[in-house]
Amino acid sequence: MNKEFFEAVRMLEQEKGIPSEYLYEKIATAICTAAKHNYNGKDIVHCDIDPEKEKMKVYVTKNVVEEIEDPDTDLTLEQAQAYRKTAKVGKTIDIQLKTKDFSRIVAQTAKQVIRQALREAERSKQLEEFQSKNQELITAKVHRVDPITGNATLEIGKTTAILPKSEQIPGEVIKEGDNIKIFVVDVRESKGPKILISRTHPGLVRRLFETEVPEIFDGTIEIKSISREAGSRTKIAVYSTDEEIDPVGACIGPRGQRVSNIVDALGGEKIDIVKYSEDPAEFVAAALAPSAVVEVEILDETVPACRATVPDDQLSLAIGNKGQNVRLAAKITGWKIDIKPESGFYEGSAE
After folding, report:
1. Would you say 141 and 154 are in contact if contact means Cβ atoms under 8 Å apart?
2. What is the pLDDT of residues 110-137, one digit of tens each?
């Protein structure tokens, strides 16, 4: 193998980011696999690659015997001593193969195996790159939107991924050339790396808050739970480990700028930021915002279930459009919530 071969490997390492050691290992294996065809597949060929000296040598190992039983693996003492004068019966010798000893078919086989090794290395590198982004927030460019299915093809670095219509925020219009933030839900290996992305997953909201609120990023404020109906409303429960820091105020930010940035990134989705409490009644009351709550009665801690009493004029607000507010409050707290008007009487519209 000449100097151009080693230069080509170095270029592959630079362009593809595949370690040269990995390539040399795969290439050596490929050459041995190809060369073994000349010896009926027997595992007697090995390859040494020295990138520093830019030398490659291929050897076949033969047994030195008194009488040949297998011409693929055996040499007589006389034949062996033609290669090495010190050869002895019962020992083995390595014979360096010449390039001309490789037939055209064997050379083609080696090329195919090398190409396959390169594809596997690229897939492995891509999978590793994807896994580093798993459960993370990333920005991607919209390459194409299918006019029939609505699925969007996104450019993520040097590769692409599909954002299904079902994982897009309802009512949101995505156009080619847009830069959008997405959440990497999972990375799987199935005929190559596959990255599952979403804009409806609650993890997207969590990562956006971590990006916008330094106190969450440094751990001073914790996100306890999130409930979300993408495109409509999200409730997020936050808690501060520092009593002097208001977790809700910190998430809203000066003049509401922090939460406003997140709302914009979500296409106008409403966000309720509520203060987490270990007291279930207090937590449920906060979770029913923007409605005021008169009282929360714990009905059954094993279910768990409770009843929240709200002012009559805020019954509809507490329940929300099609029950959305109380549904999200139940998800974020983990409690089944029954809403009761303060007067005990339900008006037709509220009911």
Report:
1. yes
2. 677 778 777 877 788 778 888 888 999 9
Residue 213's SS3 state is: coil
> Do the beta carbons of residue 65 and residue 26 sit within 8 Å?
no
Average pLDDT estimate for 264-289: 95
Which amino acid is it at 23? L
Q: What is the largest CA-CA distance in the chain?
A: 112
Rounded CA separation 67/75 (Å): 8
Parallel, antiparallel or unpaired: strands 74-76 and 55-65? parallel
Residues 6+ apart with CB under 8 A from 105: 37
SS3 labels along 281-327: HHHHHHHCCCCCCCEEEEEECCCCEEEEEECHHHHHHHHCHHHHHHH
CA distance 58 to 241: 65
The CA-based dihedral angle spanning residues 26, 32, 35, 36, taken in that order and rounded to the nearest 10 degrees: -130
SS3 231: coil
Residue 227 has phi, psi (to 5 degrees) of -125, 140
Please report the pLDDT score of residue 351 as a whole number. Answer: 31
pTM attached to this predicted model: 0.71
Measured CA to CA, the distance from residue 90 to residue 145 in angstroms comes to 70
Cis peptide bond prior to 193, omega within 30° of 0: no
Q: Which is it for strands 233-240 and 270-275: parallel, antiparallel or unpaired?
A: parallel
| Least trusted range by pLDDT, from 6-10, 177-181, 227-231, 269-273 | 6-10
Q: What are phi and psi of 336, to 5 degrees?
A: -80, 125
Q: What is the mean pLDDT of residues 310-326?
A: 94
Q: What mean pLDDT value characterizes the chain?
A: 89
Residue 274 has a CB neighbour count (10 Å cut-off) of: 24
pLDDT band with cut points at 50, 70 and 90 for residue 152: very high
Tokens at 130, concatenated: 């994807």
Give the C-alpha separation, 235 to 287, whole Å. Answer: 8
Q: Which of 15-24, 192-201, 203-212, 213-222 is least confident?
A: 15-24
